[in-house]
Amino acid sequence: MPKDTTNHPDLLAGAHVDAAAYDRMYAESIENPEAFWAEHGKRIDWIKPFTKVKDTSFAHDDVHVRWFEDGTLNVAENCIDRHLATKADQTAIIFEPDSPEEEAQHITYKQLHEEVGRFANVLKELGVQKGDRVVLYLPMIPEAAYAMLACARLGAIHSVVFAGFSPDALASRVNDSQAKVVVTSDGAPRGGRITELKDNVNKALLHCDDHVKCLVVKRTGQQVAWVADRDVWYDDIAANVSTFCHAAEVGAEDPLFILYTSGSTGKPKGVVHSSGGYLAYAAMTHQYTFDYHDGDVFWCTADVGWVTGHSYIVYGPLANGATTLMFEGVPTYPDAGRFWAVCEKHKVTQFYTAPTAIRLLMGQSDEFVTKYDLSSLKLLGSVGEPINPEAWNWYNEVVGKGKCPIVDTWWQTETGGHLITPLPGATALKPGSATKPFFGVQPVLLDATSGEEIHETEAEGVLCMKDSWPGQMRTLWGDPDRFVQAYFSDYKGYYFTGDGCRRDADGYYWITGRVDDVINVSGHRMGTAEVESALVAHDAVSEAAVVGYPHELKGQGIYCYVTLMSDETPSDELVKELQTWVRKEIGPIAKPDVIQFAPGLPKTRSGKIMRRILRKIAENDFGSLGDTSTLADPSVVDDLIANRANK
Ligand code: ATP
Ligand code: MG
């Protein structure tokens, strides 16, 4: 591990959970999960209260996950109606458009109630009923949240598809879920450019059932090609419907949404989440992990197309009656100061983003940060990939001024909410560690080959979960066998996360990367994250991705793709310097065999490095790159192939 030179921010004073409370609550949650979750299930307003709390099994031949199963509720009522008595005029959603020239919107809970009621009635006019699937392919505009909550109000199941996805990727998701309606907009402004969303839907629907309707929200006002009988303008129907819509009573276990995983490791999986358990867990983690208090302004920069946007832009914050910020744009438009400009403008108190964005901004001048007043910030968060200590330190010092705790939250689309994360009033931080389990979460490390649980505190192995938590996925849409196969078969009796992990002497968890990505050099198993962090710790390096490749002597060699800081130039000397650097930081065994300078790395649309593609390139196997439908910029791959280090 690179040495730790940070001035750690202090624990947040007055937080919901301090260190003593964490220990007590964690013990309760493990020793008596029924009582613990019966209590926290009350975060939700139930129409019919549950009498059963937990019925779960990870046994390979009988996998089932049910929470609060005889309770009934409506998710939209929980996110809106129940706040009206006290918070009708409080801002629920702040909308910050792509262009800083366009005015921001402040949508109150009262307005949200009307907008969602209207949207639900529009969907009803199109024949949407409880249990039907609705695909949402929208920019990051308030209507995306309205549409999600409108589905929830009707008991319909939404499947949000990130607006950056291609027509093919959209079509396969519409077909997989047999959706009745696709909701889109004319165009989507992003980073000063327009994505032709409606055009993409037109192309996608050529490959879908004729009965699928297309509902179009006006965003850009541009011309769009129209198919009569299939396409309808939202405004045309909205003008004639009421703003009140009755909220359907749904079972706790009824699906709230389907969401496809990023596809970092293979074909995306259609993860199904429940209504009751999911909402309780999203709300609870939002409150405790971010230490949300009334009056805070919470900003999660994810897109609603990812689970992070579902749980921490929409459902968690709104269930807690919070003010949540939705940002339509990108971190570098009009320049690399945009995030901080928005923080200053809206006095953001909690800011939650991904390591990919932090590394990107770290590669630019610090002046983009320092020229803004960030004194409103009290907490920073990270999610999506391991955050390299170097990036952590930059985030802490330059953005947080050494006074904002950083919550490095480890979780997955499948987990619904945070599983391993610091709590800002309770957990002393270590840069690069996701630290400790959340309440009710029982991480275990298994030996990769024997599948045996490792009981020593200091250990390294495959990260699994021993028992369920309310936010856990319930199945894969239309494919219950793949659900069992993917998560409960490799290690019987456990939920298998797919990630490798190290536990230190203090019981802190350090995610080492995906199990598939582990490198075995002369019999030494090494996580990719560690080598990458060492590289990023060098002043010249902005980002790095490391994979193994076949090596005659060592079994596997270490192949590094390195993106330099904007003011650095590649050279043979730099290659040598970096090799020596990593050797010094980690040890001789970790010395990179190959370093290829790469102006860009292949990433998923959510910004995660796709190592499986880098592995193929390192192996000189360009013919079978696998599913690349979720790749953000395919041209990056061509460039890497053309410049593959000739070693
Ligand atoms: P797929 O499952 O289709 O390959 P994916 O795993 O990238 O895609 P997500 O559910 O979006 O899809 O991502 C979850 C994964 O992201 C985790 O399993 C882990 O590898 C990584 N991750 C998320 N947060 C963190 C974190 N704080 N630290 C380290 N890794 C993280
Ligand atoms: Mg995954």
From TrEMBL:
<dbReference type="InterPro" id="IPR025110">
    <property type="entry name" value="AMP-bd_C"/>
</dbReference>
<dbReference type="GO" id="GO:0016874">
    <property type="term" value="F:ligase activity"/>
</dbReference>
<dbReference type="InterPro" id="IPR011904">
    <property type="entry name" value="Ac_CoA_lig"/>
</dbReference>
<keyword id="KW-0067">ATP-binding</keyword>
<feature type="domain" description="Acetyl-coenzyme A synthetase N-terminal">
    <location>
        <begin position="22"/>
        <end position="79"/>
    </location>
</feature>
<feature type="binding site">
    <location>
        <begin position="408"/>
        <end position="413"/>
    </location>
    <ligand>
        <name>ATP</name>
    </ligand>
</feature>
<feature type="domain" description="AMP-dependent synthetase/ligase">
    <location>
        <begin position="81"/>
        <end position="468"/>
    </location>
</feature>
<feature type="binding site">
    <location>
        <begin position="384"/>
        <end position="386"/>
    </location>
    <ligand>
        <name>ATP</name>
    </ligand>
</feature>
<dbReference type="InterPro" id="IPR042099">
    <property type="entry name" value="ANL_N_sf"/>
</dbReference>
<keyword id="KW-0460">Magnesium</keyword>
<keyword id="KW-0547">Nucleotide-binding</keyword>
<feature type="binding site">
    <location>
        <position position="536"/>
    </location>
    <ligand>
        <name>Mg(2+)</name>
    </ligand>
</feature>
<comment type="similarity">
    <text>Belongs to the ATP-dependent AMP-binding enzyme family.</text>
</comment>
<protein>
    <recommendedName>
        <fullName>Acetyl-coenzyme A synthetase</fullName>
        <ecNumber>6.2.1.1</ecNumber>
    </recommendedName>
</protein>
<dbReference type="Pfam" id="PF13193">
    <property type="entry name" value="AMP-binding_C"/>
</dbReference>
<dbReference type="InterPro" id="IPR000873">
    <property type="entry name" value="AMP-dep_synth/lig_dom"/>
</dbReference>
<feature type="binding site">
    <location>
        <position position="308"/>
    </location>
    <ligand>
        <name>CoA</name>
    </ligand>
</feature>
<dbReference type="InterPro" id="IPR020845">
    <property type="entry name" value="AMP-binding_CS"/>
</dbReference>
<feature type="binding site">
    <location>
        <position position="538"/>
    </location>
    <ligand>
        <name>Mg(2+)</name>
    </ligand>
</feature>
<feature type="binding site">
    <location>
        <position position="583"/>
    </location>
    <ligand>
        <name>CoA</name>
    </ligand>
</feature>
<dbReference type="InterPro" id="IPR032387">
    <property type="entry name" value="ACAS_N"/>
</dbReference>
<keyword id="KW-0007">Acetylation</keyword>
<feature type="binding site">
    <location>
        <position position="525"/>
    </location>
    <ligand>
        <name>ATP</name>
    </ligand>
</feature>
<dbReference type="InterPro" id="IPR045851">
    <property type="entry name" value="AMP-bd_C_sf"/>
</dbReference>
<feature type="binding site">
    <location>
        <position position="514"/>
    </location>
    <ligand>
        <name>ATP</name>
    </ligand>
</feature>
<keyword id="KW-0436">Ligase</keyword>
<feature type="binding site">
    <location>
        <position position="541"/>
    </location>
    <ligand>
        <name>Mg(2+)</name>
    </ligand>
</feature>
<keyword id="KW-0479">Metal-binding</keyword>
<feature type="modified residue" description="N6-acetyllysine">
    <location>
        <position position="608"/>
    </location>
</feature>
<feature type="domain" description="AMP-binding enzyme C-terminal">
    <location>
        <begin position="530"/>
        <end position="608"/>
    </location>
</feature>
<dbReference type="Pfam" id="PF00501">
    <property type="entry name" value="AMP-binding"/>
</dbReference>
<feature type="binding site">
    <location>
        <position position="499"/>
    </location>
    <ligand>
        <name>ATP</name>
    </ligand>
</feature>
<feature type="binding site">
    <location>
        <position position="522"/>
    </location>
    <ligand>
        <name>CoA</name>
    </ligand>
</feature>
<comment type="function">
    <text>Catalyzes the conversion of acetate into acetyl-CoA (AcCoA), an essential intermediate at the junction of anabolic and catabolic pathways. AcsA undergoes a two-step reaction. In the first half reaction, AcsA combines acetate with ATP to form acetyl-adenylate (AcAMP) intermediate. In the second half reaction, it can then transfer the acetyl group from AcAMP to the sulfhydryl group of CoA, forming the product AcCoA.</text>
</comment>
<dbReference type="Pfam" id="PF16177">
    <property type="entry name" value="ACAS_N"/>
</dbReference>
<feature type="binding site">
    <location>
        <begin position="190"/>
        <end position="193"/>
    </location>
    <ligand>
        <name>CoA</name>
    </ligand>
</feature>
